[in-house]
Amino acid sequence: MGFDEKKIIRKCQKGDWSEFGVLYDFYVEKIYRFVFFKTMHKETAEDLTSRTFLKVVEKIGSFDADTSFSSWLYAIARNGVIDHYRKKKEEVDIDDFWDICLNEDIDKKIDDRNRLQKVGQYLNRLKPEQREIILMRVWGGMSFREIAEATGRSEGGLKMFFSRFVRGAKREDILNIVILGILIR
């Protein structure tokens, strides 16, 4: 991070939003990935990511600038996903599911979906809290300290869980898919 995050936050809290874009640019892709892997739907992830940053703007005055901004931001995103699923109606549009256009490489899309399905099956064997830790660590790029703050778990416990996850992913032959983020499209 090549900027003073706390200084920017304090400026925003005083009503000076001139540098908020720096925070946004630094975190938007991370938050999008986190939300995407919880929803597995591009448009929903985009919408919830936007809502997350709108909440940040609305609530930045209540943020304690001496605590971890990234943990606070992920907590807002996580709560947004939870609210989304509470409100969501079970409607499935086949076009949204397949998302196939005539000019796309269908074979590549099918291969990507098969990989996604394999990783999804492995992740679905985990408890929801465990999946969330993987998303925060691998695709969110969060440190164990930040994840501990966001989840209320100990750093040591998180490290042990993550180590076990890596061993299991190696056994399932999906570790490279997970680490390379092949699911991010």
Q: What average pLDDT do the residues reach?
A: 80
Class by SSE composition: mainly alpha
Count of the domains: 2
Total number of β-strand segments? Answer: 0
The SSE order reads HHHHHHHHHH
Report, as a whole number of angstroms, the end-to-end distance. Answer: 25 Å
- Under the CATH scheme, the architecture of the largest domain is Orthogonal Bundle
How would you sum up the major sheet? none
Q: Unreliable stretches, pLDDT < 50, 5 or more residues? A: 94-98
Q: How would the global form be characterised?
A: globular
By DSSP (H or I, 4+ residues per run), the number of helices equals 10
For CATH, the homologous superfamily of the largest domain is named as: RNA polymerase sigma factor, region 2, helix turn helix motif
Give the proportion of residues in helices. over 70%
Short description:
This protein has 10 helices and no strands. It is an all-alpha fold and 185 residues long. The two termini are 25 Å apart.
Characterize the structure shown.
The chain is mostly helical and 185 residues long. It folds into 2 domains: 5-87, RNA polymerase sigma factor, region 2, helix turn helix motif (Rna Polymerase Sigma Factor, Chain: A, Orthogonal Bundle); 101-180, Arc Repressor Mutant, subunit A (Orthogonal Bundle), CATH 1.10.10. Helix content is 72%, strand content 0%. The chain is built from 10 helices and no strands. It has helices at residues 5-13, 20-39, 42-59, 69-87, 94-98, 106-124, 128-139, 144-151, 155-171, 175-180. The longest helix is centred in the N-terminal third of the chain and has 20 residues, at 20-39. The relative contact order is 0.11.
